[in-house]
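User: Working on a comparison across species. This one is Domain of uncharacterized function (DUF1992) from Nocardia otitidiscaviarum. Can you predict its structure so I can line it up against the others?
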Amino acid sequence: MVERKPAGMGFESWIDRQIREATERGEFDDLEGAGKPIPGEGTPVDENWWLHGYLKREGVSGDALLPPALLLRRDIERIDESVRDANSEAQVRETVGELNRRIVEWLRMPVGPAVPIRPVDADEVVARWRSGRLTATETAIGAVRADSDESSRDRTDAPTRWWHRLWGGRRH
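Assistant: Here's the predicted structure for Domain of uncharacterized function (DUF1992) from Nocardia otitidiscaviarum:
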């Protein structure tokens, strides 16, 4: 606890004296960031600097601050990425149905900016999902065939082992 300011002394000189005495006692020596530049020094000041710092410290994305209309718009744009790892058409339709339910709920009572949003056609999403899976399957099959061709060539080019020479050749 610091003693009270004397009546005849100005605030600025009182504060300067308190800081000088604390520095002499070494109270500022072990502070975090001592000797490092101040973060953000020389950059333009953002009016939401505290909000950005809080989100960064807490490890939260800024999505929680977006209005529902913009969140829905973003989810509509990313629906193909959302269903890419689905194992069945039923899972794709379930994901699209959940998104459409949220869209219809928002359309009943729109809040936030006026963003044009309409329900997603599940059949179109399923068709894109099928074509994406077909392409991925063809790529995987091509890679497996290439690997098997290389491994068969490796077996024919490999030197014979001592037990093969002993027993009279290779047996496959």
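For your comparison, note: The first helix runs from residue 11 to 25.

User: Helpful, thanks.
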